[in-house]
């Protein structure tokens, strides 16, 4: 079989090209690490802030010793200030948040009249004050409600009469599904690394071969054009597959570094899930290689091919963007579209959802057929004299 | 034996070959002589089965180049215009690749490679990557690649282009050796001395037509001159005037 001879030669030839290796596999190997790095950074910041105690200054703490004891028992960091203008304190930047307890607090409290406390802050400042403000407000509300209920009970009234409605949130998303929203960009990466893996090989074996003048002697060898083309497409597929494997390994190593458990989420990407992703992506690898080969065959030169293929790489991501904007789920009909089907299957596999065998079959067969059609077109191209340029 | 019978080839705007017929015998070196753009390369590409003639036929060893292209490809060894090597493969790897495409395997292939490395004096550079090779080294590797399956017909497109004196001499010896082995050698050139030094038969092509076909001595005799260059120019011009008239 000549196709195996061509396959072996193209793989060896391109493995010796550092530029090809670098551009083919750097995204695949480093993408997940980069993605996880950004995620960890963002999460650490968000989590770090919410763990901080609520720090604020209090003016007139002596008027409400009971309230102050309550606040001090909470996760707070309180500074007492004798007397000052709260506006000036915030404006000067000395304190982000100032609680003002007025002089008549104790009297009004005793009489059962509503007490108004002032919370001074600067909402135009880009800082964590907003979160702190919400927390302090929540503390004060809880305190106020507790006192209110106690008062009602003292008067022999059921406190629940003052609470006609309470809400309770029930989030049905599994913890892993919530984590996946953070990892929503993974399917893009999946498609991209497959195409990037074969990118330079598709150029080198077609436009590059012609530019170097080796195409003509190759075509005068007694090997069928379909064998030559298949050898080139499969070689491109091999690089696409290596890209995907590197990507999955990198993902496997990087994902455990994300502090999902601190978000109350769980995401474990196991070996079997990754093998599943690889398996359902196999036809897409061939499809990508055939598409890249066909387009690169039209180019007159290496540079022209680079320009064309850069555009081609965008094409398979379009269905993904469309699907995300219009909220298309991984239904059976999406399985007919190459790249969209695999992205849906990958999302399901990583979420740990069950993947219908019919969807897998339709996706794999349809993408495989598309790939075969493109391979046929490539063969036709190489049967024409025009391929010599 | 290579037989070309009234072939015509037109590209989009260029009428590359208008009417070319000739025969290249076994055990002879036949030269296709003509200026740049005369149709030499197009004729050789038709014989190499990479393009098909619009009209007329060409056959190699009695096999039609369009109808029996696969069989013809086993019968010919082609040295292309530029050597067309893979720069990241070594000399031997380049040769081995084409040997495998010719269906050769294992020790038979390796022995043949070793023999060619010896025959073409490639020992010093055969196992280096061809990217940095001199023109002479490249031609040798490309020639070894063309000869790997020991074809009966050897087609060389301007083989001495860019070679220095020593490399040219060594190539001439190789080509004579092929002829003495009984091969049919067809090469194109626009260099007069090359043809005079090497070939047995000459076919002069100009503007896509054959202007002369016969033994080397005949070309000068037909014109009554000793100088091949003068003879060539006169043959070319004579025919051009006929076309113009």
Could you outline the blueprint of secondary structure elements for this entry?
The complex is a heterodimer of chains A (389) and B (245).
Chain A: H1 2-15, H2 18-51, E1 54-59, H3 65-73, E2 76-81, H4 86-91, E3 98-100, H5 105-111, E4 118-120, H6 129-154, H7 175-182, H8 186-211, H9 215-219, H10 225-254, H11 271-298, H12 302-314, H13 317-325, H14 340-351, H15 357-383
Helix pairs in contact in A: 1-10, 2-8, 2-10, 8-10, 8-11, 8-12, 8-14, 10-11, 10-15, 11-12, 11-14, 11-15
Chain B: E1 2-9, E2 17-24, E3 28-33, H1 40-47, E4 55-60, E5 63-64, H2 69-75, E6 76-79, H3 91-101, H4 106-119, H5 135-147, E7 153-157, H6 165-180, E8 184-189, H7 192-198, E9 201-206, E10 209-215, H8 216-223, H9 228-244
Parallel strand pairs in B: 3-8, 3-9, 6-7, 7-8
Antiparallel strand pairs in B: 1-2, 1-4, 4-5, 9-10
How far the N terminus sits from the C terminus of chain B, by CA atoms, comes to: 35 Å
- Roughly what is the average pLDDT of chain A, rounded to an integer? 85
Q: Count of DSSP E strands of chain A? A: 4
What string gives the helices and strands of chain A in order?
HHEHEHEHEHHHHHHHHHH
Oligomer: heterodimer
Can you say what the CATH homologous superfamily of chain B is?
P-loop containing nucleotide triphosphate hydrolases
Question: Spans of chain A of 5+ residues with little confidence (pLDDT < 50)?
Answer: none
Beta content of chain A: under 5%
CATH architecture of chain B: 3-Layer(aba) Sandwich
């Amino acid at each position: 079989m000549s196709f195996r001879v061509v396959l072996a030669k193209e793989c060896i030839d391109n493995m010796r090209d550092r530029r090809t290796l670098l551009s083919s596999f750097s995204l695949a190997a480093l993408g997940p690490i980069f993605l996880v790095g950004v995620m960890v950074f963002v999460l650490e910041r968000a989590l770090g802030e919410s763990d901080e105690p609520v720090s604020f200054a209090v003016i007139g703490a002596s008027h409400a010793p009971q309230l102050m004891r309550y606040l001090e028992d909470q996760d707070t960091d309180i500074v007492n200030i004798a007397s000052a203008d709260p506006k000036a304190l915030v404006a000067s930047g000395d304190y982000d948040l100032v609680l003002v307890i007025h002089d008549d607090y104790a009297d009004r409290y005793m009489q059962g009249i509503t007490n108004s406390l002032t919370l001074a802050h600067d909402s135009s400042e880009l800082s964590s004050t907003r979160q702190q403000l919400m927390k302090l407000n929540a503390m004060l509300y809880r305190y106020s409600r507790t006192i209110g209920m106690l008062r009602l009970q003292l008067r022999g009234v059921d406190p629940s009469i003052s609470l006609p409605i309470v809400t309770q949130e029930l989030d049905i998303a599994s913890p892993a599904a919530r984590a996946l929203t953070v990892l929503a960009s993974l399917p893009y990466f999946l498609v991209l690394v497959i195409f990037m893996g074969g990118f330079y090989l598709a150029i080198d074996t077609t436009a590059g071969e012609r530019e170097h003048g080796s195409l003509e002697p190759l075509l005068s060898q007694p090997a069928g054009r379909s064998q030559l083309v298949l050898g080139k497409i499969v070689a491109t597929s091999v690089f696409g597959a290596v890209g995907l494997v590197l990507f999955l390994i990198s993902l496997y190593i990087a994902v455990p570094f994300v502090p999902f458990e601190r978000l109350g989420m769980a995401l474990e990407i196991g070996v079997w899930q990754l093998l599943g992703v690889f398996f359902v992506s196999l036809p897409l690898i061939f499809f990508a290689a055939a598409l890249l080969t066909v387009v690169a065959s039209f180019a007159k030169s290496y540079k022209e091919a680079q320009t064309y293929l850069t555009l081609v790489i965008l094409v398979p991501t379009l269905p993904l963007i469309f699907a995300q904007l219009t909220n298309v789920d991984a239904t059976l009909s999406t399985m007919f579209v190459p790249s969209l089907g695999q992205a849906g299957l990958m999302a399901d596999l990583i979420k740990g959802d069950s993947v219908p065998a019919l969807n897998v079959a339709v996706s794999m067969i349809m993408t495989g057929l598309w790939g075969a059609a493109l391979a046929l077109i490539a063969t036709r191209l190489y049967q024409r004299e025009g391929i010599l340029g | 034996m290579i037989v070309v019978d009234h072939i015509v080839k037109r590209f989009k705007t260029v009428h590359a070959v208008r009417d070319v017929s000739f025969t290249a015998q076994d055990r002879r070196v036949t030269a296709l002589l003509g200026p740049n753009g005369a149709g030499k390369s197009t004729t050789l590409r038709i014989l190499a089965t990479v393009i098909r003639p619009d009209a007329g036929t060409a056959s190699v060893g009695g096999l039609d180049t369009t109808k029996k292209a696969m069989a013809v490809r086993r019968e010919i060894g082609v040295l292309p215009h530029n050597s067309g090597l893979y720069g990241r493969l070594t000399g031997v790897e380049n040769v081995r690749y084409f040997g495998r495409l010719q269906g050769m395997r294992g020790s038979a292939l390796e022995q043949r490679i070793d023999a060619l490395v010896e025959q073409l004096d490639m020992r010093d550079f055969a196992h280096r990557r061809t990217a940095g090779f001199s023109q002479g080294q490249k031609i040798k590797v490309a020639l070894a690649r063309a000869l790997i399956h020991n074809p009966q017909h050897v087609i060389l497109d301007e083989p001495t282009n860019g070679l220095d004196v020593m490399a040219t001499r060594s190539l001439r010896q190789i080509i004579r050796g092929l002829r003495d082995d009984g091969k049919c050698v067809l090469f194109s050139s626009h260099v007069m001395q090359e043809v005079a030094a090497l070939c047995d038969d000459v076919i002069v092509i100009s503007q896509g037509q054959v202007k002369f076909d016969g033994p080397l001595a005949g070309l000068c005799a037909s014109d009554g001159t000793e100088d091949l260059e003068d003879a060539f120019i006169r043959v070319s011009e004579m025919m051009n005037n006929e076309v113009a008239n």
